[in-house]
Amino acid sequence: YGGTGGPRGAPTPAFCFRLAFPAAAEAPAAPAPTASSPTLFDVKTIHAGGGTYLSAAARTDRCGAVAVAQRARSVDTDYQRKARHLDAEPAVRRHNGGSTTAVLGTLRALGHVRALVFGQYGEASADVHSLLRAAAKSAAAPPPPPDARAAHHLVPSPASPPSSPLSSAVPGGSPPS
């Protein structure tokens, strides 16, 4: 995870932007976020000594793209598993009025956690390339009027760490806004 520095170990993404971004390659059925919705990102690296490069599919891939794609596919699943674990804690259930799906529901409402994965050999996940295209497109566009800047540029959202968007669903987190 980007960290578990949130209250009671709430999963904390590396960063959160409000930007129009293509649908996740790992979740093609998921709707593409709009510039007004937050997009959660987590940064991961893989190295040659890890199991990702040693998988059967990755061993036959000479450029490492399979290993990076495999790791990218697991990021959102990892976040959902952590959310389920938090939802099972009695203190979290009490905080959420008895709900057993508050953290997972909040995570799902925010959309697919995007995986910015970098491999040891210079390869990068599809979301890295999509983010670079979005940044280049934003930088090349003429400046919007001052009142529209936040909607058209890569600007950290108010929900970005240190306050995780999931913090309100765990005890000690910030109240929902």
From the spread of the alpha carbons, the general shape counts as flat
How many β-strand stretches? 3
What is Rg?
17 Å
Structural class computed from helices and strand pairing: alpha+beta
List SSEs in N-to-C order.
EEHHHHHEHH
Uncertain spans, ≥5 residues at pLDDT below 50? Answer: 154-162
Strand order of the largest sheet: 1-2-3
How far the N terminus sits from the C terminus, by CA atoms, comes to: 24 Å
Largest sheet: 3 strands, mixed
What share of residues are in beta strands?
A: 5-15%
Mean pLDDT: 76
User: Into which percent range does the helicity of residues fall?
Assistant: 25-40%
Helix count equals 7
How is this structure best described in words?
The protein is an alpha+beta fold and 177 residues long. It contains 7 helices and 3 strands, in the order ββαααααβαα. It has a 3-stranded mixed beta sheet. Helix 3 (65-87) crosses helix 5 (102-109).
